[in-house]
Amino acid sequence: MLYVTPQSKNDETRYLPAIYLTAHQLLSSCTNSYIFKNLNLTMKNLTLTLEESLVFKVLLLAGYDQSDSELEKVEERQYDMRRMLAAATSANATRYYFTILELQLKQVRLSVLTSKKLSSELKSIKRKMGLTLVRFEHASVNLEPFVRQHPFETSRFLLDCITKHYKEELKSQAMKILGSTDFLGNPSGFLADVSEGVSELVHEGSVGGLVWNVTHGMANSTAKVTGSLSDAVGHVTMDDKHEEHRQKLRLMQTAHSTDHIMAGLKGLGLGLYGGLTSIVSQTYTGATQEGLPGFISGFAKGMVGTVTKPAIGLLDLASSTSLAVRDSSKK
């Protein structure tokens, strides 16, 4: 979920610690204050990957599945805690002075992976939170360091300042995050690949580097767009079993480009088979579960699936082929 972003072999800092902290505290006769000449915290670039089902499971563990009355009790306890914190930040609270306070975290690579199927408990939490996640991968968010000179504040006030600073930094990077979304084809990643290829061409005279980077960017964008389209059309089929089987095929481990091609061909075969049998299977299922109304609705769903399932199979094949080209173009 959270780890240090892998560094290239040419990066001289790759052997340094993930977190580097230096602090110079001065002796003080005051009992409720600490004096620091400086405090510097430096962190390596981090990668944060949020998987939708895991996020809601953490919220479930934190108690967000409670009833409204229970949540009101939790809010009352939180209010009492806030009153205690307010009292702690009074004139007698411990304060910290820094000649210079500096926190450095240059870049965070954000990814959000949405889940196709959630349990009823997790769906309930999702409704309560009103949280809708959009899938994107490896959005590089560049953060300005947090620097303060001569602050003399409580720890609570300093933490609030740090939190506000990084929230503002994330807001300023909103367009970069939007440019990494799958349904747009990750234009930010494509531009990064092109700029890297142009840089190799200018500085190293490598035409091959330009070609490979542009190929990688185009294939990656195509894979994301076709994948998003196939997922969108997949909801139209209204066939949970078919969609579940399709998602299992997409989640298969693919270590090589040929694995992507095989997964795409299997997806195409599943789509063609589903299209041929859609009317019979959907009509039979509807009739056995709901009688005559189910027979009619099942027949209608089957008619839709006859067209959409083969189309989804073709999109899955196109997406897998693009992934194969993307992976094979990596240097």
From TrEMBL:
Gene Ontology terms: biological process: mitochondrion organization; protein retention in Golgi apparatus; protein targeting to vacuole
Organism of origin: Portunus trituberculatus (Swimming crab)
Domain of life: Eukaryota
InterPro entries: VPS13
Protein name: Vacuolar protein sorting-associated protein 13D
